[in-house]
């Protein structure tokens, strides 16, 4: 007898990826889907390849007053929309919010599942990290915990595939001809992901994240995030690797790799690949992290968090190998 | 207790995709992998994201004399190599050959699983169709069976992603800078896939496939095959759709769609999407078919065939939704 | 003393490419630009790399009543818009219309410049062929003129980069995430380019184009068109090549090639590459043609036509080599 | 009467782009081409779209002993090859070396043309900067000269299209299927471009470039380089812009832009776009720079340097607009 789950925001990329993962999850039964632009359609009209068992599910208009009974609700709504949309959901309904409105909000666990699963496991409300924080914080956590780097003046240079920018507003400017074969920085100096990154750095290190720098870049590919993070610290490369391997020894989705990581290693999976290169002479530690922005950066980590709060094996429905090439 | 399977040709794209599918197959246990260019490496060295349960499996050099006991062997070797390589495999070992050497060879079933599963089910040796035949024949089968088109003078114009050209010889010419943002026809007038297409057309129709035309084109994307097939016949569009829906009513992987199909609908799955557009005034029937060349065009159909010959549910390990976007 | 030219529809891809070509044309001076979505902006705001000599030109709102005196007006407006927009332009102002509204309309020459330049040279109004007709007709013209193929039952399978679909209406559906790594057919059975293709086939052959079939496909790349054309005829490959070489012996932009053509050979230029493969046994002639849809398929051919009607060397401003890789 | 030029290394991307630019240069006549992998072929066999005036030029095997008389030789050979290959060229023959062997070598000017054209103008031997230094140094030069940033501890995070990795050795690993839809860092901690970057920083600032960090990343696109450079300094954004606008006021190829730059703005041209974002509170100055790695990063800057040493207008043959979209 399955766990009854629903998805609101089914039209976005995060919602669509949640659908894919939930469809082959051994314990989750998708019984409800809602989306703004597609209410009234069947799932198969929006997702021609959706498994036949789900094909006829009709997408609803979101109305918390008429929600069926759900064990877990996955929300993947644009930033600014989620807070209001979820405010009337029954207090005892578990929610994993892939969107940004509930991160570090009282009553919501910050769902950095690979780092503090125990803080998530008995929660009712989980705020999934943003995709850039997911990539970045996984790489930094061991180094901060082991004091191998300073928590301040960290420079994060992130490169993201285009699906990292969602489906709505922002995405409408990503016409193929303007975006293909093109690369650009955006969100200079301040970006909506910075607060959660700074707070987590401080939580993990006990120090100050002052001087944090974060620059995202749009890359002409569909999926994938690579964070190249420049930190101050006198650690050696070996010390960084040892730290990360210890920190994540029991965590099923983190792979520490000596080869510089490639985004494609993670595509279609909930994996993160971490690597390090340090030069004590320059007081420099470079941390690198790749994830699939829709996997570990959104729906993958959301399902992982849902597994945690439902008391399921953490890897349930998430053990598929990456899609290569 | 799992079914013991092996893969020879693990370094190629077909072998890699077989690995991905087998890794999450509920009944198959991968106990053996062999590959020319990677013997001695562990699977995780070649496939950084491979599930940890398989990470330490060491890739062997192919030697049929020292094969472990396997229930099914998947072979994904270049054309011309497979015949000799598999000739010494114990006669009772089930083999699904993704490569081309055994198609329409005595003792081997031609593995067009969606069309004649019953002819495959009790076989020991199955020759997987090539990716272009897989796409093409699925679309044509109903029309040929129902005599809605003539079997002769069929014109097949195929467009394929670059992974449809394998990893060895031919692929070495596909350097990124030469291939990106570029499209070209190749294999004009005759192509290695034509004989199996012609034979199957004749088998399905009882008529002659004389005048068959087939032109493949390389498209700058990794996965995906679209076949646009121009046939002679006086059928209407409705008749074609009705025929296909009847023919595939019980087949789990074939989706008949009124919307013109997009290759991405199938990416990462074993699905095929078929569509039709006919104009009796021009005695014209256009059949369209999309598959993932590594899915239905190679490893997906191979696993489907293996399920059939092992008496497993046909969809075992193949019910994952396509990866989108 | 330059020839005063203007561009209306500067915001579209055809208009933008016309700008690029005119900017380095030895005889054309761009003195006027108009565009719907960008009126009031300077050219450099829309085209950051525009040569400094043109940077400050302000884009006007289109108003034929207040047109400055121009020697040639290039129009690149969406189909359906051009007819009305150009109706009030002074009768003696030369116009080259890249859009579709004036093809085969009385008073307008059909600007198939590589085939009948003499019919264009003394005109005042030229309707540029569509990009698919430009590719297709160049390949067919010699074979039709030399009666090497039948004019009827020609099957044209065209593959186009995304910029072939313009900037407005249709393009808004080409979001990057939906379009990247994806291929699809569209415009099945009838397409707006068919009438001009059929008329030209009949004009060139003196026969009937009945049974014409045309299927375009969207390909995930920015520029490039490849037409693979299946014709009936008993000619040999050598006869086709000899015919094309003779027909285009003096035409500067047509390259007849024995190697199957690649779209990238033409990118950024006004070149067309043609090739042929025939099999008399199957009464089959395959003609192949590649162009840059914004070059020979739009602005390149427009500038070539403008050169013709202005009595300039045909290659003026069009002798740049393709951009490779 | 043209200036007689030759290209050695015609098979590489730099050599091919030099061919394109020289072919439409008003003063340069290409009379000699040599290449390792293509000796004996005609230019049109290697470059199907090469202008007909150059089509029949036969590619020679490189032999300095049998060089014709040339005014300028462009060399685009792999690093490590150039030094020996050019060592026997007549001392009075002008050479512009696109490759890396002569940068900051006695007797060779470092060809940072937009920054110190006067140091290049009367030279016989010019070493073109590498593509990453070309992008980086153009952005930093004004800030270093005006002491708006510290010369030490500069962090350069560079993203490059695949043609930035050349044609030989390194490029053979860039197979399409491995490279498409993938992003990865490489050359961690030390890269061959670092010495010339460090030396130039010191030359421009009079200070020490100690602590320089440089990390390149491969991006799935053909052309384009974006450098995101993190510097220490208390300058404001406005001060940075004012500095750059002053510094480059008379330089024809540098565009200072308030909008974050996109690589595609430069594609196919010799332009560089620079932008800045600073936050005095964090003692942070971010400089951004985009170029076409084959334009300003190789052949474009090489032609610009050749114009300088030949006493031609600097923009000769380089005023073409970028190719968009």
UniProtKB/TrEMBL annotation, chains A, B, C, D:
The keyword Thylakoid does not apply. Pfam families: Semialdhyde_dh, Semialdhyde_dhC_1. The keyword Magnesium does not apply. It is an enzyme of class 1 (oxidoreductase). Residues 4-123 form the Semialdehyde dehydrogenase NAD-binding domain. InterPro entries: AGPR, AGPR_dimerisation_dom, AGPR_type-1, NAD(P)-bd_dom_sf, Semialdehyde_DH_NAD-bd. Its EC number is 1.2.1.38. Keywords: Amino-acid biosynthesis, Arginine biosynthesis, Cytoplasm, NADP, Oxidoreductase. Pathway: Amino-acid biosynthesis; L-arginine biosynthesis; N(2)-acetyl-L-ornithine from L-glutamate: step 3/4. SMART domains: Semialdhyde_dh. Its main location: cytoplasm. It catalyses: N-acetyl-L-glutamate 5-semialdehyde + phosphate + NADP(+) = N-acetyl-L-glutamyl 5-phosphate + NADPH + H(+). It is found in: Cytoplasm. GO terms for molecular function: N-acetyl-gamma-glutamyl-phosphate reductase activity. The active site is at residue 131. Belongs to the NAGSA dehydrogenase family. Type 1 subfamily. Catalyzes the NADPH-dependent reduction of N-acetyl-5-glutamyl phosphate to yield N-acetyl-L-glutamate 5-semialdehyde. This is N-acetyl-gamma-glutamyl-phosphate reductase. It comes from Acetobacter musti.
